């Protein structure tokens, strides 16, 4: 039914953004929902072109009724953002917005369209102090946000980004973002985000599918008078069946900002969803799928879950206050804690990677298959109280054809200078591998390794722990082949 809550009611306005915004503003007056239909009556096409971000108010409810929405070429605008975003009232407690809902029906699709040329590395050249306007969704200082059942293709940057927001529910998102440019993340939570549920995510992204990145943030100073907690905490992420060259889930915090109380459960690498071609410059039209990537034998994932990093911006400097890299002070012991990772099925380099620092971490039921190499990789940094259990690394039965044994294709594709990543260019076929780690109270149990593995435990560093209940397909494989001060006692 055509009424003031349908954008077609405003087809006399100058463009699609004005039509949708008029319907959203009208609905604000009495709490009605806005429905964006398939047909745009102003143009006669089944397309809505967004040239200015749609500003959502407290209480806004948007139904995407089988519609196709595309970011207009050449603009630097979100598709949806909260209406106080980047306004003075948006940096106050009184201006905190809430109860914003966006739900898709049918094949509701958001398309990033042609890229505008702005990246995380050059946004200042375009006169901006950040590049968040290249995301499809951008919310600052909000709570009670729900986003459900939407197809997202070709995002220009992270598809969704949240700052200092809480009680967020995201589910039923399907991505089709073959690698065209950097930073095609799925969902990113920045400083001050908490009480989060992300579930039922599928498809392919060009970067991390879900990321929690608590770093120096331009909004920390602007929201300083609100005295918000800047940590990321109380997060549940579950049921991701997808493809990415990077990580299903990434946890990254520096500069004293904390990430804690995180549950990650049910991640599976889904080869059949791989796009046609993931090399730069080979653009894939939206909605174009093939059953298998033609070079899938060369394609793999770096990490299932990545906790922390020992490489980020600048050069390493090991000082008495910890590891510093450029303008970032790396996370210190106690900044990242209470992390639980369960049920990871992965064919990439590493099932779960832990770097820099972590405390009170449980990793259980990690299953590497195909060319999957290392179940749990513990990199440089201070760790304590790691429980690593139910790890299956049976390896590729034909190691000569193992695509992970030659990473040159993917390294060329990425141009990756990440030292965590580079350390893995030579595969380490272990259930658990330590790379110059300082780790105490490490408990490893219920491990199954295949005949092509080099050891159950490998690496080097200062490690104290125990290992129990090991099954080896080849009994000649050593339990602990680590060198240096790595004491993992069999019990």
The whole-angstrom Rg is 23 Å
Query: Which class of secondary structure composition applies to the elements?
Result: mainly beta
Structural shape = elongated
Major sheet characteristics: 25 strands, parallel
Can you characterise this structure?
- The chain has 491 residues and is mainly beta.
- Helix content is 6%, strand content 46%.
- The protein contains four helices and 28 strands.
- It has a 25-stranded parallel beta sheet that branches.
- The radius of gyration is 23 Å and the shape is elongated.
Write the layout of secondary structure elements.
Layout: H1 16-28, E1 34-36, E2 48-50, E3 54-56, E4 61-65, E5 68-71, E6 80-82, E7 97-105, E8 109-111, E9 137-140, E10 142-153, E11 160-163, E12 166-176, E13 187-189, E14 194-204, E15 210-214, H2 218-222, E16 232-243, E17 247-253, E18 259-269, E19 303-307, E20 316-319, E21 322-325, E22 328-329, E23 336-346, E24 350-368, E25 374-393, H3 408-414, H4 419-422, E26 430-449, E27 455-472, E28 483-490
Parallel strand pairs: 1-4, 2-5, 3-6, 4-7, 5-8, 6-9, 7-10, 8-10, 9-11, 10-12, 11-13, 12-14, 13-15, 14-16, 15-17, 16-18, 17-19, 18-23, 19-24, 23-24, 24-25, 25-26, 26-27, 27-28
Antiparallel strand pairs: 20-21, 21-22
Outline:
This protein has 491 residues and is mostly beta strands. The chain has four helices and 28 strands.
Describe this protein with a few key phrases:
6% helix; 491 residues; 28 strands; mainly beta; 46% strand
